Amino acid sequence: SQTIHQWPATLVQPVGSPLSLECTVEGTSNPNLYWYRQAAGRGLQLLFYSVGIGQISSEVPQNLSASRPQDRQFILSSKKLLLSDSGFYLCAWSAGHGIGGEKLFFGSGTQLSVL
Amino acid sequence: SQQGEEDPQALSIQEGENATMNCSYKTSINNLQWYRQNSGRGLVHLILIRSNEREKHSGRLRVTLDTSKKSSSLLITASRAADTASYFCATYSGNTPLVFGKGTRLSVIA
Q: How high is the pLDDT of residue B109?
């Protein structure tokens, strides 16, 4: 069966520090991968998605970046965190070749607090 | 950008009652999905309804879709305390990933 791992669960970082959040999927090949952010009490904002290794689409211009070095690995990074980067970060995957409206499977999330 | 808008933002009911949440969207869709999120956790997919479908059932869940009104509803029958969570609708319009609404917070009081 397929599983998705996301870590760390919580993270407290000072403003200006770097960030690296990692997400891996097991039990499937060629997944579509996604990073969403959820502000407190708000909906989900799509940050990045990827349909294949090295293919990254950015939805929101900001100081975050994403990379997909391996088929089932998706990394969210920042060189210098801002206060506004605080939030709940969720990684997700879906099956299929390209974006086709399939259901998403989410990781357990990372609560990031930038102080 | 957010496509779906859930209504109400928050809902509090007694155990055993039915809970109805609504979702309105702006552009034509290929499918609409409902997800559930327990506090501090990831989202879990509940049900997907395609644009050519009008109603789907899954256990105690019933979803309807009215494409002429660009709206959907999620009904949870005989609610339980364990149904307490936030519920999100998400729309797929073709070629771009799912767009989520802001969610409805459901509290079921035992």
A: 96
